Every structure is written in structure tokens, then in C-alpha cells.
Amino acid sequence: VQFRPDGKQVAFLTVGPGAPRVVTLPADGSALTPLSLPIERASPQVWSAGGELVLMSFVGGNPDIVAVSVGTGAGVRKVIATEFSEFDPALAPNGRWLAYVSNRTGRDEIWVQGYPDGVPVRVSSNGGYEPLWSADGRELFYRQASAMMAAAVETGAEFSFATPQELFKGNYLS
What we know:
mainly beta, globular
């Protein structure tokens, strides 16, 4: 389940007869009939401040990152779609930077690029997944095997980052 930043809509995946689909509803319950988005085999991940829903798409084998402008009738826009796997998108609080995982180096690594488009920059160097921005946008957290990593970042006009540091390590899943 993903709430729009203004709290007015919620997007979620429904599973039932036919293919799973992504739908939206007003968060206040004013409508009970979900609006289906024009995409199948996808998972809602994060909303942009402008009302664009960023999803992981599982069409064509490898996952890609796509976006749909909810409520405009616009179709699906490819954000990061290559022959490699791209997944786990996370938007910076200022909405200008997208962190995600890609295996373009042969292993899952954390990458950041401008949003809605930009040149990718690799942040991790020894594997990484599940990127998450700090609330103030000054750090990017991610998991690396059993370690939680953090990189101090600058997310103004340009993106830059310090060498990621291990915060703690341990097996926290049962």
C-alpha cells in the first residue's frame, strides 16, 4: 500500500480473478470503486509530489521501474528500463533523485539518478538493496548482506555522496 504524499489517495495491488492489477482509491473513503491503472504485473512503490506513481514492472522477464500519472489518462512511462533488473525505487524527500537497485554490474547495487530522468551514479560498491532516504534527504540508507549502510548525500542541483559507512550488522529476520 502506498499513500500519495498529500494523503488523498492510496494505491495498492489487488489479486483476484484475472491478472493482479494496481488500483487507487480516495483515502477518505469517498469512493468505494477502485480505479484500475493501465498496467499489469506491477507493484506500487512510491508517489512523486506531482502525483506520479512509481512502480516496479514485471513485464518481460527482468523488473523495470515505470511511472503512471494517476488521474490524467496518461499511459505508462518507462523511468529505468534496460536489459538488466531495476527495482526497489525510492524518491528523495525533495523529489529530485531516485535511488534504486540494479544488477548492471553483475550484482545488485544501489544507484541514484535524477528524477524524472538523469544519469545513473553507483553508490554502493559491495552489493546493496532496499534503499531508503532519511526524512531530511541528507542520508541514503541501504542493506548490504546483513549490514545496514548509510551514505551522507547532497541532493541539491547535483547529486554527490560520501563513502558509505556500516551502521550495524546482524541477522534481524526470523
